[in-house]
Amino acid sequence: MGFENWDEIRTAYQVARVGTVSGAAEVMGVHHATVIRHIDALEARLGARLFQRHPRGYTPTEAGRLLLAVAQATEDQFAQLGARIAGAGGEVSGELIITSLPNLSAMVIPAMARLVAEHPAVRLRYITDLRVFRLEYGEAHVAIRAGAKPAEPDNVVQPLTERQTALYAAPAYLAAHGTPASDADLARHRFVGPEAAGGRAPYHRWLFDHVPRETIVFATNEADAQRAAIVAGIGLGFLPVLEARGRSDLVEVMGPRPEWSAPLWLVSHVDLHRTPKVQAALAALKAAAAACPSEG
């Protein structure tokens, strides 16, 4: 049996991805009745249930997961094709997507300002997230990653700089609890840390190895929330030197150490690496990193 109506498959894919009819309808820009009609028609044509309906939404059945694996691959391939076509021109224009871990905006934003000034036809998107964006599927043109050197075979990887991290506290916290004079003093202090003990950041692994778990009194997976908690005086915490040094509401309690730092890498896909748009982004990011004395 052939699949004559790819709209129905796309609809099923969006329902599985979002989990609700209303959410899929919003993503696709159609009425929710259209989504239901597509799902019903596809199930009738296949003679199988693709979803279990329940009050919270739609969950794919085994047959649904088989179909949706193909739909996912097709969606990814079209995204990859679109990214390659968009980056194939000789002009530095159009959408340019840069991704990084959170807390790198102090370095990335000056690079983006330079790009916009030099290439007014560029439309920039800057996305920060802990997840690894898939360049091969067109999710981004350039990624900044930390830690071990990325090893994907289809990516071009270049060193950017070293991300230095130090231990900070709010003046109010130090007034109430004192300033630790050495590593041995840390066990009597309170800390702001990551939500999960197995964090990838070297300074968070160091924290879990050197202080009792109960001293971490505030845990979150959001970088902004960690910074806000440190500024609020909840406890000591690690922050990037580039972001925190020089702020009046933070005191550097212990300076950066090699075991707390991590290399930063510029990553681009081999198919787009030589395009003018990606080369302009890489040059701007390298210049911005070199201009940061605390990170370069």
List the helices and strands and how they pair.
Elements: H1 6-18, H2 21-28, H3 32-46, E1 51-54, E2 57-60, H4 62-86, E3 94-100, H5 105-118, E4 122-128, E5 142-146, E6 155-163, E7 165-169, H6 171-177, E8 191-194, H7 202-210, E9 216-220, H8 223-231, E10 237-240, H9 241-244, E11 251-254, E12 262-269, H10 276-290
Parallel strand pairs: 3-4, 3-5, 8-9
Antiparallel strand pairs: 1-2, 5-12, 6-12, 7-10, 7-11
Helix pairs in contact: 1-2, 1-3, 1-4, 2-3, 5-10
Notable characteristics:
five-stranded mixed β-sheet; Arc Repressor Mutant, subunit A; globular; D-Maltodextrin-Binding Protein, domain 2; 296 residues
Overview of this protein structure:
- There is one protein chain.
- This protein has 296 residues and is an alpha/beta fold.
- It has three domains: 6-85, Winged helix-like DNA-binding domain superfamily/Winged helix DNA-binding domain (Arc Repressor Mutant, subunit A, Orthogonal Bundle); 89-154 and 265-290, D-Maltodextrin-Binding Protein, domain 2; 165-260, D-Maltodextrin-Binding Protein, domain 2.
- Helix content is 40%, strand content 22%.
- The chain has ten helices and twelve strands.
- The strands form four sheets. It has a five-stranded mixed β-sheet, with helices on one face. It has a three-stranded antiparallel β-sheet with strand order 10-7-11. Strands 1-2 form a two-stranded antiparallel ribbon.
- It starts with 5 loop residues before the first helix and ends in a 6-residue tail after the last helix.
